[in-house]
Every structure is written in structure tokens, then in C-alpha cells.
Amino acid sequence: FVLFLVAESHFYKLFYKLLMSKATPTHGLVKDPDLPVTADGVTYHLNCKSDQLADRILLVGDPGRVDTVAAYFDAGSVRFRSENREIFIATGTYKGTPVSVLSTGMGTDNVEIVINEIHVLKEYDFERSAWRPRAGDANVPAGVKVFDPSSVKMIRVGTCGSPYPDMPLAALAVTRHVIGMDNTCLYYKVKEEMQKSKDLQEVQRVVKEQTSLGAIDVYATKAHPAITNGIVAACKTFNGNLPAGAKEQLYVVGATATASGFYACQGRAVGRFREHLLAPKLVEELSKVQFDVSEGKEIVANIEMETSAVCFLSHLLGYQAGSMCVVVAKRAGAEHLFTTSEQSGQGLKNAIQIALEAIVALQ
């Protein structure tokens, strides 16, 4: 009987170890707490190596959408998968071009983690234990390949609400400028060229003067023009290839307002929180603002929770990044509406195809 209890106890200990080993990825030995990477180059959160992540990346918030996107990859091309917390990755090819899809989870704080670790995977040489040189760097070691930051291209594909009264449900909100209502990127110094940008100064000025966000330290940034233009071109091609009578995928190019949360941060007043909101009329205010930028008059097309960090941090690194979101909530105008599951599903399906076409066409 005693032997049975000992054996049973040993069995449960082994079972528990097995269970935990499957639930938690094995990161191996991490020597530097400020750069948590294993000796063989596996990053702590993304849980992958440099050669397992393509240079062209679609970013989605929901881990469940990674498989949805990967289903459009070339048949049998998926060569790597990883699942760690809310960060799922699949790497394969689309029309012969290597592409990864990666889920960030919700919020700019998660995006900050993801962009930092993409930076490590793309630019840290684990064999030399040194950062890869770029063009213009002094004392580039002989035989070491120079890194081109513009080779990293990212498109966020997500969902959003819209304060634009004339925004059709399930349309695509394509980002040009971004209003950072979060504080994640305030921990990074702004590049001088961004500080001097007349367009970004205009966005920031109008928001602070004409909305309740004057009480909040908002910042402004911009999607890379090549990404924005590439998405628009892909939208036009997508619609041009539709069969006769098929419904076109509508899209609106404008500014994206990125919030650090879903409720008060986006002007949603819930229950007893109602009297505590700092910007209770935020959506109404954003629905009325217009920016005089280089491209002409620009409206706030959408509100979401990730794009500011995607664009701001990518710009600091010289990467090309942008965003396109399916509008699932119309929050201004005569009617406040939410999409049906059929509308949002079709919108996401179209958005994924458009994003894939856009990202492989970029030079």
C-alpha cells in the first residue's frame, strides 16, 4: 500500500511537470535581464529566432486571427509556428514572398514589447554579440553585411470604431497620421524630423485646441507613406478584380486616434464611472476636427488601441509600418451602429487579402 502511494505520488509529479512544460514555452538560460534573449537567440516574448521571422510582417491583435491569416499563405509554406501568451506567430510565403503574421494582443504596451523584440531579431548579431551595422556607420567590420532598415515592413490589420459621421460600417480605415492618446511612446525621444514636421504639428495643435485631449499629453506620428499608398493601391486592385455585381470594399484614408484603453480612454461612459470621465465628449469632438496637412483636408477616420506605437516606434528605427482596420462600430452621426458578424467577418477577410497583396508588392 505504501509502495502504491509512492508510485502514485511520483506519477502525479511527472504528470504535473509534463503539463507545465506544454503550457509554458521553454526560454532557456537568459543572461541579461535588460535584453532577455537565450544564448541561441530566442527572444523572451516572441519565442522565436531571427531566421524564423520574415522581414514582411502582418500584425494582428487577436491571436485567433493568426491561423486565419496563415490560411491565405501558399499551400504547405508555413515553416514556423510559435505560441507564447497572447503572441502567436506563423511564418510562410504568400505568392512566393516570405511573410510572417504575428499577434500583439491588445494595447500599445504589448506593441512596444513586440517592436523591441522584432528589432532585436532583425538587427542583433548573436554570433558576434553585437548590433548589425547600417549604411553610414563608422568602422564597419570587413565581411559584415550592412543592414537596411527599410527591409522591415509591417502592416497592422485590426478592427476599430469610427468617430467619422459618414463612415460606412465594415469599411477600411487606412491610417495616414496618428493621434497618440496613450503614453507608451512618451518614454522615447522624438526624432528631430518628427518634431519639425508641419503636418504633425498641425495634428497635435488641432487636437489640443479643439478637443478635451488638451488636458492629456497627446503626441502625433505618421504611417510610412509607402505603406499607406500600398494599401490604397491594393484596395483599388482588389475592387477592380471583383466579379460583376460584387460589393466593393470601401475604404477611407485619414487619421487614427490610438487610445490606451477601451472605455473612458475612448469616451465610453459606463455606469458609475460616467461622472469621472476626463473627456466624456471625446467621440463627438473627434468627429468635428479636420487637419490641414500636405495631402489636403484630413479627418479622424478611426479609434483603436495599437497603431500609434506601431508607427512611432517603427519610424524611430527606420522601418516601414502602417495600419488598416475594419470599422466594426460607428460611434457618431444620426445612428450609432455595430456590425453584424457577417459584415465584420467579410470585412476582415477582405482586409487580410488586401494587406497581403500590399505587403508583398512593396519595394
Describe the structure.
The chain is of the alpha/beta class. It has a single domain, classed as Nucleoside phosphorylase domain (Rossmann fold), CATH 3.40.50. The protein is built from nine helices and 14 strands. It has helices spanning 2-23, 64-70, 108-123, 192-195, 198-210, 225-240, 282-286, 307-317, 341-361, and strands at residues 56-60, 80-84, 87-94, 97-103, 124-125, 130-131, 153-162, 172-180, 219-222, 251-258, 290-293, 296-304, 320-330, 337-338. The strands form two sheets. Strands 1, 2, 3, 4, 7, 8, 9, 10, 11, 12, 13 and 14 form a twelve-stranded mixed sheet that branches. A two-stranded antiparallel sheet has the order 5-6. β5 and β6 (130-131) form a beta hairpin. α3 packs parallel to α8 (307-317) and α6 (225-240) crosses α9 (341-361).
SSE topology:
Elements lengths: L1 H22 L32 E5 L3 H7 L9 E5 L2 E8 L2 E7 L4 H16 E2 L4 E2 L21 E10 L9 E9 L11 H4 L2 H13 L8 E4 L2 H16 L10 E8 L23 H5 L3 E4 L2 E9 L2 H11 L2 E11 L6 E2 L2 H21 L2
Parallel strand pairs: 1-4, 1-7, 7-13, 8-10, 10-12
Antiparallel strand pairs: 2-3, 3-4, 5-6, 8-9, 8-13, 11-12, 13-14
Largest sheet descriptor = 12 strands, mixed
Provide the CATH superfamily: Nucleoside phosphorylase domain
In CATH terms, what is the architecture? 3-Layer(aba) Sandwich
Number of strands: 14
Count the helices. How many?
9
Residue-averaged pLDDT, rounded?
92
How far apart lie the N and C ends? Answer: 72 Å
Radius of gyration: 22 Å
CATH class: Alpha Beta
Structural class: alpha/beta
What overall form do the CA principal axes indicate? globular
Q: Would you tell me which CATH topology applies?
A: Rossmann fold
